[in-house]
Amino acid sequence: MRKQEGQNSRMKEILVVALILLHTCSQVATSGSHVEYLPGIEGPLPFHLETGYVGVGDSAAEEGAGEVFYYFIESENNPQEAPLMLWLTGGPGCSSFSGLVFEIGPIKAKIEKYNGSLPKMVFRPQAWTKACSIIFVDLPLGTGFSYAKPPYLHRGDWSLIKHAHQFIRKWLNDHPRFLSNQIYIGGDSYSGTPVPVIVQEISNGNEAGVQPWINLRGYVLGNPVTTMEEESYLPSFAHGMALISNEIYMSLQKNCKGNYINIDPENKLCLRELETLHELMSGLDIHITLKSKCGLASPRPHGFWSPRSLINKFRRHLSSDLPMPPISCRSYAYFLAYDWIRDDRVQEALHIRKGTIRNWVGCKSDEYDFDIINSVPYHTNLSQKGYRSLIYNGDHDPLVPFMSTQAWIRDLNYSIVEDWRPWLANGQVAGYTRKYSNQMTFATVKGAGHVAPENKPNECFEMFIRWISNKPL
């Protein structure tokens, strides 16, 4: 209770500061440029791409400010009326380039043998931009192509939230043609923690009369980190997926007594069973249990973001140089795409400001303050205000098991409007869904892992298109 009261107090303080900064900031705060061609892609782009920077913070009022880099893809279908979504990739500190190229954007790496030349990119037919304009942002500062101005501002949940709030209002000021469009905030993985708070900050700003008024309608979260206790569901997930035996699971329950996070160092029996669990899962891709661990490359840091993680031994930060895995590996696409985005010709075409970053990296999760330990109360507030939400989980994700998401949704105690049922894509079961009274929809994606749109692009495309169009899954 004291922790939550502290969070609420901190939220009010941040809102006051944000309101002051938003009122005093310049009305024209963005620097965007149209991108018609990209190296590695034949011919002009068949969609509207704009890249640019938005200044956030105020060096006169705080320790640091910076420039947030973004990729803006205009909807390929009726952009004047299509919804607009701000998308943040998780991490924390993973570039939105990941969402753009590996998940929901209109381009992806062409999988072919690497010969040392610039990798080729092709178009993704299941891009969510076919029905929604999307702004992919690099947040927090220091992520991707975003950069901080000295003195350096520390990275954390609240600074990310404040800067995202500033970003969207400044961007809309400079793009007034989208002011009447429905606005959604989206993200996956660790973004499950800050995104609901960003939505609430925007809503509070609207109620306080901050301009421009934002036509906020809801939010989308995939495999969301929400309570920082997701790892406690790993044993039951592993048991349900037949990754551990009944005997090991029963021993875990008995010796750990349901506590798989704050473990007494003297509880040798519990620690031993957890070590067995880790060993049995060590040959699997930690992002999706359907695949084996493959090669040296990894799209994101391994393991959880909490230092108390049970699977910290899997954790490994991305280096600035990503080793080349076998072409058969899932991570081969990351090797190609990272080589592409680091090319000087590509960065010039994207209008990257020279000298602002030393070397682009996919994820930078160090030096980050985990200010918010539980975002569930924000879901409650947003539902009471009438905002729509789509929460989805790949059902083979061991990092954020679907049972952990179901548990905190169940704790919200919402009435069920439409009970558990399969949802279909191309006439086949693509997952299961349940709809709640407070405009919240939960869905599993069958056979998907931690990055569900990457594993199941067709199914996730169908899911999103139906939901964003206010149609049942």
Question: Explain this structure to me?
Answer:
Helix 1 (2-24) packs parallel to helix 3 (157-174), helix 4 packs parallel to helix 10 (376-384) and helix 6 (246-256) runs antiparallel to helix 7 (268-281). Helix content is 31%, strand content 21%. Residues 1-5, 11-28 and 296-320 have low confidence and may be disordered. The relative contact order is 0.14. With 473 residues, it is α/β, with parallel strands linked by helices. It has two domains: 2-228 and 371-468, Rossmann fold (3-Layer(aba) Sandwich), CATH 3.40.50.1820; 230-327, no CATH class. The strands form four sheets. Strands 1, 2, 3, 4, 7, 8, 10, 11, 15, 16, 17 and 18 form a twelve-stranded mixed β-sheet that branches. Strands 5-6 form a two-stranded antiparallel sheet. One of its GO terms (biological process) is secondary metabolic process.
Topology:
Elements: H1 2-24, E1 30-35, E2 49-57, E3 65-73, E4 84-88, H2 97-103, E5 107-109, E6 121-123, E7 133-137, E8 147-149, E9 155-156, H3 157-174, E10 183-188, H4 194-207, E11 216-222, H5 234-240, H6 246-256, H7 268-281, E12 284-285, E13 288-292, H8 332-341, H9 344-349, E14 368-369, H10 376-384, E15 388-394, H11 402-411, E16 416-425, E17 428-436, E18 440-445, H12 452-455, H13 457-468
Parallel strand pairs: 4-7, 4-10, 9-14, 10-11, 11-15, 15-18
Antiparallel strand pairs: 1-2, 2-3, 3-7, 3-8, 5-6, 12-13, 16-17, 17-18
Helix pairs in contact: 1-3, 3-4, 4-10, 6-7
